[in-house]
Amino acid sequence: xxxxxxxxxxxxxxxxxxxxxxxxxxxxxxxxxxxxxxxxxxxxxxxxxxxxxxxxxxxxxxxxxxxxxxxxxxxxxxxxxxxxxxxxxxxxxxxxxxxxxxxxxxxxxxxxxxxxxxxxxxxxxxxxxxxxxxxxxxxxxxxxxxxxxxxxxxxxxxxxxxxxxxxxxxxxxxxxxxxxxxxxxxxxxxxxxxxxxxxxxxxxxxxxxxxxxxxxxxxxxxxxxxxxxxxxxxxxxxxxxxxxxxxxxxxxxxxxxxxxxxxxxxxxxxxxxxxxxxxxxxxxxxxxxxxxxxxxxxxxxxxxxxxxxxxxxxxxxxxxxxxxxxxxxxxxxxxxxxxxxxxxxxxxxxxxxxxxxxxxxxxxxxxxxxxxxxxxxxxxxxxxxxxxxxxxxxxxxxxxxxxxxxxxxxxxxxxxxxxxxxxxxxxxxxxxxxxxxxxxxxxxxxxx
Length: 448
Ligand SMILES: *Cc1c(COP(=O)(O)O)cnc(C)c1O
Description:
By secondary structure, this protein is an alpha/beta fold.
């Protein structure tokens, strides 16, 4: 029995589970998408909002600029480039053997400063928020202070008496660990078995304590949470439940809106925007999608992409069980080379908050991620980690769907021809050269 029903009953009530359990790439387009105004309503209910997160990041810019000189060109604002990907679009059309009307763009979070992945948004934001709370409480900062003073001995002494901990498959640990250690906190990262060796080594080089577990992400998080619970000096960054992480991610949307405007790309009802977001526990894509709905309203369509072996968000939303269900409950093993997405149980908070604001979900198998990784390098010179490619098939999945999604949403042929598809390329900037070469070799071999 699985949650009160036999596997046969589940397959009967949710026919898509058959495909999900047999690990075939599949897609599910949400039949009950709500208007974006639901997101504004939610944001008014939730204080603090993403606007206050954005202001907080501006206050910290003088510190970030000083502590991480690579952020000098952007004045201490941590942001990634937006770029067109016409060559990749053409290659995808050939690869999938179909016409792909519309434009293809790419948001290169792989090039985010400090930690080279989408986690440099939410993860770093939460550490900064915590540091600000402490510094204000201790009188080190007042309103109007120049936050550059946090790069000083007094601040480091204050933070040095405090701990920050997090459970991670790798990239969140890198962001939290590097930022926390830079401020002077005692940082511990609880890492799941999927975490790459080099990510652990990098953290140790930064003076971060790495606790290793033979189990998956959910178990590493549970361990970390347990250890932190009994220590009042320890702040645990809770990837499954944190509103701060979520809001840190959400800030991406207002930045993207400016970038699209500068690039002369229109987004409106006649020029819909499709954003393809790789999804692990859900905080990153959920937060970005939340921000996107506030920034672009009903003109943006968000889709979440997961590995065939770790489709936790799709499973949680489809069954309505959210964090009560894990992929393992349905016999799915949560083993994937996309280590950033190797999550078996989704965030219940994100699933419940976002389920009616996400247009659809699809799964991608690992071999395909590697093929796309090699294609993106060949066509656009991009160096991405496997997780970052999960959204790359999205344009073809949306244009090829036969579930009545486009029709239901009024996305007719003309609108699709004017549409923009955005691949959120979530990471890869810190992958060591030798590791990247082995990814590329595998991808090229699979492409044949
Ligand atoms: C963490 C991560 C994601 C997904 O973010 P979640 O918050 O876990 O859903 C996607 N891509 C990369 C590279 C990541 O590290």
